[in-house]
Amino acid sequence: MSNATTMLGRNFKHTLRNPVAVFNAVLFPIVLMLMFVYVFGGAFDIDGKYIDYATPGMIVLTICYGLSATALAVNSDMTRGIINRFKVMDISRSAVLSAHVAATMLRSLIAIAALVGVAFALGFRPAASALDWLATIGFIVLVSFATAWITVALGLAAKTPESAGLVSVPLVMLPFLSSAIVPAETMGPGVRQFAEYQPFTPIIETVRGLLTGDPSTGSALSAVIWCAGIALVGYVWALSTFKKRA
Amino acid sequence: MVVPMTSSAIAASGLRKAYKDKVVLDGIDLDVAAGTIFSLLGPNGAGKTTTVNVLTTLMKADGGTVRVAGHDVATETKAVRAAIGVTGQFAAVDDLLTGRENLQLMAALKGLGSGESKRVVDDLLGRFDLTESAQKMAATYSGGMRRKLDLAMTLVGKPRIIFLDEPTTGLDPRSRRTMWDIIRQLVAEGVTIFLTTQYLEEADRLADRIAVLDQGKLVAQGTPAELKRQIPGSHVRLRFAGDVELDSAARVLTDATRDDEEDLILRVPSDGGAKSVRTVLAQLDAHSIEVEEFSVHTPDLDDVFLALTGRTSTKVSAS
Ligand SMILES: Nc1ncnc2c1ncn2[C@@H]1O[C@H](COP(=O)(O)OP(=O)(O)OP(=O)(O)O)[C@@H](O)[C@H]1O
Ligand SMILES: [Mg+2]
Fold first, then answer.
1. Ligand 1 in reach of B45 Cβ (< 6 A)
2. Closest partner residue to A10 among B58, B94, B110, by Cβ?
3. Which pLDDT does position B2 carry in this prediction?
4. pLDDT digits (tens, 9 = 90+) for A46-74
5. Contact A80/B84, CB-based, under 8 Å?
6. Among A18, A81, A86, beta carbon nearest to B91
7. Cystine design at A231: which of A146, B19, B110, B314 (Cβ 3.0–4.6 Å)?
């Protein structure tokens, strides 16, 4: 455990030394939200205020957007000599990787806090109770945890930094092909089917349900199962790739 | 090989390793006594790094057994890792941290308390001449500074067995000497050093025992003196001003041979002692032949390599 904390400190120093990346992780989702609300928002046919509809989706988008930085960081760690030093030390095999996961989660929580702050300023008025908020935060942490592990695995599996940049693209794109920005029913037939069955739709619906104070058990259950599966696959895959790469 | 475990820091027998069907280590037997410097000498591609990787648990051997600090590397990996320090061929430092932070990171991972950590880190920065650059990011360090920081990081936590893969490659002469001094000092403190090098002089100067690795096999093993004994004896080298002097000297000194690589040089077999040297010079004096330059050549490890493998190490690496 203390090894993982030490490694987390290392990742944080890395993050702070790269202010452009932090700025990017916090600012980009906010800019995107402003764009959707002010530029496209009027065009979508949605019950109630668009900001209330879009914010939950934007929260999940923020998580995914931050993943590309993680894939790159993990991959560059592997291509640098320092990893061999960690490997010959008597420290837990997963410490290096857990630190990347924890740093990713912290980074996305910070970005989400900023995003939600801006959303409130724009008129976001969720009906969620204190308990719903707690559940939302817990669920967001779970989503971030699961997606971070799968991204760590992808970053490890990538042979070059360039391909590590690419592997995270599908994860960043998936929320766009869900009900994040517009309801799935309004999409074209092929996309709609895809949107209905991909994991980010129940994930986003769960966040939306919790924040509107009207959680749906079905979405929540399927979202939690998806997250548990993704986290497990990511963890196992990441650890075995880590051990293989000398 | 039967070796009492207590005195062997590193013992390997029948070590084999292949990448796909390319055999890189073909049955290596090694034994390094605790508190000594062992040098693995070999040209590029001989398998030095592969050997270090196997001995340090970074890589699994295909065959053979290895015990480091009394523990089997295959089954007691954790115990081996806890006992060793490794400085690989390529600097393993964190570029995005400062020199000091790199050392602090090691101290934290080794479980040192904050007071001890500060003391150890300050001490190492001073010892390696890095105090002034301690607050700079390692990415801005020169190659030699990275190398020094790398070794300093290995020393955090005082490992009893240290592996150094070509520790002085790329260092200037002064830094190389600093590195040698540090290595000798470590051994004086009882640390065991396993060192690879391409420099014959380095192995000769530092090592208690040397093993010569060539194409995955150990072609010789012994003390520097033992290895030197395996090759032709010493000789006297004479340089003349011109061909006339050279020819007349060759007529006088009947056992002399001309040097293959340099003109105007004669090699005369000699034990290098004052008496035989005086005899050679007296013969030349008697015929009034002027000698430009005179030196006694004792065999070095380059000669060892030539004698053992039929090639010089430089010729191997060039091919
Ligand atoms: N991952 C690998 N896959 C395939 N072949 C490899 C691999 N690593 C090393 N080799 C081969 O194994 C042989 C020994 O390599 P090794 O790195 O152990 O040599 P070395 O003695 O350390 O050389 P150098 O002095 O250049 O560092 C070389 O022929 C090399 O091409
Ligand atoms: Mg090497």
1. yes
2. B94
3. 47
4. 666 888 888 999 999 999 998 988 998 89
5. no
6. A81
7. A146
pTM of the model: 0.80
Q: Residue B191 — φ and ψ, nearest 5°?
A: -75, 145
Q: Are B294 and B236 in contact (CB under 8 A)?
A: yes
Digit-coded pLDDT (tens) for A69-115: 899 889 988 877 788 899 899 888 888 899 999 999 999 999 999 99
CA distances from residue B39 to A44, A174, B207, B273, B274 in whole angstroms, order as listed = 73, 55, 6, 30, 33
CB contact under 8 A, A89 and B109: yes
Q: How close B83 gets to chain A, by Cα (Å)?
A: 9
CB B198 less than 6 A from any atom of ligand 1: yes
Specify burial of residue A136 (Cβ count, 10 A radius: 0-12, 13-18, 19+). buried
Among all bound ligands, the one having the nearest atom to the CA of B198 is 1
Burial class of residue A1 (count of CB atoms within 10 Å of its CB; 0-12, 13-18, 19+): exposed
User: Measuring from atom 28 of ligand 1, which residue has the nearest CA?
Assistant: B45
Residues of A in contact with B153 (CB under 8 A): 85
What are the C-alpha distances in Å from A77 to residues A69, A96, B42, B166?
Answer: 12, 9, 30, 23
- Give the residue from A103, A106, A105 showing the smallest Cα distance to A9: A103
ipTM: 0.79
Q: What number of H helices and E strands is found in chain B? A: 12, 14
Alpha carbon of B131: minimum distance to chain A alpha carbons (Å):
21
Q: Please spell the DSSP secondary structure of B254-285, one letter per residue.
A: TT-EE-SS-TTEEEEE----HHHHHHHHHHHH
Contact B84 A88 (CB under 8 A): yes
Domains (ranges, CATH) in chain B?
Answer: 8-93+141-229 (3.40.50.300), 235-298 (3.30.70)
